[in-house]
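Q: Convert this sequence to structure tokens.
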Amino acid sequence: MPELPEVETTRRGIAPHVEGREITEVIVRQARLRVPVPADLVERLVGARIGELARRAKYLLVPLEGEVPGTLLWHLGMSGSLRIARLGELPKKHDHLDLVLDDGAILRYHDPRRFGFVDWLSGSAEQDARLARLGPEPLSAAFDGERLFARSRGRRLAVKPFLMDNAVVVGVGNIYAAEALFLAGIDPRRAAGRISRERYDRLAAAVREVLAAAITQGGTTLRDFVGGTGEPGYFKQRLNVYGRDGQPCRRCGAELRLVTLGQRASVFCGHCQT
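A:
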């Protein structure tokens, strides 16, 4: 599933090609996504001009200026991607939606599993129920060890699913939670409420380090993901634990272990993470 670095990579990749451009045509090939494509989307979008793209958690926000201003809320689901195509470039299988722009560029949405969606917001995006209850961005000043420590008191939940709770902090999915816990030296099975403030300071710093590195590398391509330019993400080559169960720890050489936490596979080093 595309996580925060993949969505941020997508935003950065497509923004120079779409910001300030007018939408001249909308082509919907498949409207039956996780949230059905709004029936009046074509009517709303044609003639609108795209503003500055933003990201909130794993959502991409595309503001539109026109007679009826609003925002496209885009979620890539488990296998979705947005890329820039050109007029005359034939759509591939699972290319479900095109926004044709006034310079001939096409913002093309591809989603083999159709678990993603694009929706129209007419009011303030911050008031949408899907965004209103989200925690802080992990790369913002609002996220730190103090917040993790305060939110974890009395919690028996294992620290890995606690870190993946979007009400605690957004966008730290399975891959990056596993990697951050490794860097911080914390066993993912440890109860969130039994971790010290000092260790949460290290964990918050590790989250920021891992996400920033993943964004620099263009995200992590495990199967379907490509960025806005059609290139895969290369952070996979830097993974220390995720997907490496049974292999030697890059730090100490011990065999990495696999457990299930919150119905998600979690790999860790029993020697380096305590």
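The longest strand covers residues 59-65.
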